[in-house]
Amino acid sequence: MGSAAEIAIGGVAATAMSGEAGTGRRLNGYLLVGGIMIAVLVLVAVAAPLLRLPDPNALDPIHSLRPLGAPGHPLGTDQLGRDLLSRLVYGGRITLLAGVVASVISTAAGVALGVIAGYFSKWTDTVVMRLLDVLLSFPFILLAILIVAFFGPSTFNALIAIAIANLPFFARIVRSEALKLREQQFILAAEALGASHFRTLFRHILPNLLPLVFSTFFLNVGWMISQTSALSFLGLGTQPPTADWGSMLAEAQSFMDILPNVAMLPGLMIAITVVGFNILGLGLKAYLLRGTAA
Amino acid sequence: MASFLLRRTLLLLPVLWGVTVVIFLALHLAPGNAAQLLLGPLATPKQLQALELQLGLDQPLPVQYLSWMGQVLHGDLGFSISYHTEVSGLVLTHLRDTLVLAGAAFVLATVIGMLLGIVSALFLGRLLDHLINIVDFLGLAMPVFWLSLIFILFFGLHLHWFPTRGMYGVSDTSLLSLAQHLVLPAVALAAAPGAVIAQITRVALIGELNQLYVKVARAKGLSKTSAILGHALRNASIPIVTTLGLEINYIIGGDVLVENVFNWPGVGQLLVQSVLNRDYPVVLGASLLLAVIFVLVNLLTDALYPLFDPRVEVHG
Question: What ipTM was estimated for this complex?
Answer without folding.
Answer: 0.84
